[in-house]
Amino acid sequence: MKCRTVTAVVISKRTAEAVKGQQVLTNHGCIIRLRVGMHETGDVCAEDGPALLQLCGTAKEVAALKADLNQIKGVKAKTMTV
Fold it and tell me: Which pLDDT tens digit goes with each residue over 22-65?
């Protein structure tokens, strides 16, 4: 299986929604090949930040992950397959 799907996730209320987001990622963990999360640390840990996921799954599995992430308030996920 070729893993050519990338999902960009932006979390705008990290401390409020991190647990829900982590649960979704755990539930769909079998299709996540790579996960990279970024946030500003400076003096204070930022409330928003992007994460990138490389996915290895069927179109149905990828759509389910995206839908579950987008159901969380303050989370937006967009997927691209190349």
Answer: 999 999 999 999 999 887 666 677 788 889 999 999 999 999 99
pTM for this model (two decimals): 0.89
- Identify each DSSP E strand in the chain by its residue range: 5-11, 32-37, 49-55, 75-81
Between CA 63 and CA 69 the distance in angstroms is: 10
Contact 7/77 with Cβ under 8 angstroms? yes
- Tokens 């928003």 belong to 48
What residue spans define the domains of the chain? 5-81
Give domain 5-81's CATH architecture. Answer: 2-Layer Sandwich (3.30)
Rounded to the nearest 5 degrees, what angle is found at the Cα of 39, between the Cα atoms of 73 and 48?
25
Structure letter (DSSP) for residue 24? H
